Amino acid sequence: MTTKALDGTTAETRSTSGKNQLLKQLAKDRTLYLLVTPILVVYSLFSLYPIAQTFYMSFFDAKIVRLGDFMGLENYFDIIHKIR
Question: pTM value?
Fold first, then answer.
């Protein structure tokens, strides 16, 4: 037994029509997504990647040119103890 909503549609009909509306909206906004994608790629390369690399390097005894030995959280503990 299926239950109908006040507008006479069933849950299956609503989910199918919702998917169709979403696909229509994505097709309509395709140009926008194609224009924004290169910007996001460049942003990721020049902003997010260096941030992630810096976080990774913070766990090592890093020098400017080479990575050095793994230190773990010791660098962070040193910072906390120097503040006190």
Answer: 0.54
CA distance 80 to 6: 62
| Rounded distance between C-alpha atoms, residue 60 and residue 70, angstroms | 4
**pLDDT > 70? residue 5:** no
Which tokens belong to 20?
């169709």
Give the integer Cα–Cα distance in Å for 21 and 72.
50
Within 13 Å of residue 58, how many CA atoms lie on the same side as its CB? 12
Residues 72 and 56: beta-carbon distance below 8 Å: no
Cβ pair 60, 70 in contact under 8 A: yes
Per-residue pLDDT tens digits for 11-21: 555 556 778 88
